[in-house]
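Input (structure):
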């Protein structure tokens, strides 16, 4: 969606709108890149005194593809074309992380748990990035 708003893609594709979700599109736990980077830094520090482990990193709440598109259009004021195509094989309807373990083990606390902030930040990044 950010690439479409920044004019880098002609249209946004939605892969399936017949999932058993409120609006029929997949739900994902989108995370701000700064929160993800912070989690990685904390993981490196964690490994200094602890054995390797597995952690889920996310906000524990999901947004549908249509919600992300709507919010991207809202925060940028840019309309872009959206086309629904068929489902991708193996795509589950909902993927949302359970972040309790990373919060308790690494004291990770997300700072940008807001879809409008995530979309605006992604759009601002896309505007300055060159495609090669």
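Output (sequence):
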């Amino acid at each position: 969606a950010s690439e479409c708003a920044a004019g880098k893609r002609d249209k946004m594709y939605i892969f399936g709108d017949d999932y058993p979700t409120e609006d029929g599109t997949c739900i994902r736990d989108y995370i701000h890149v700064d929160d993800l980077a912070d989690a990685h830094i904390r993981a490196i520090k964690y490994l200094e005194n602890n054995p390797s482990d597995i952690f889920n990193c996310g906000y524990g709440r999901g947004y549908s593809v249509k919600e992300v598109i709507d919010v991207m259009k809202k925060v940028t004021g840019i309309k872009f074309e959206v086309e629904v195509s068929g489902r991708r094989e193996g795509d589950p309807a909902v993927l949302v992380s359970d972040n309790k373990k990373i919060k308790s083990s690494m004291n990770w606390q997300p700072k940008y748990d807001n879809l409008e902030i995530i979309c605006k930040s992604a759009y601002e990044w896309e505007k300055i990035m060159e495609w090669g």
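Notes: The chain has one domain: 2-119. The longest strand covers residues 11-15.
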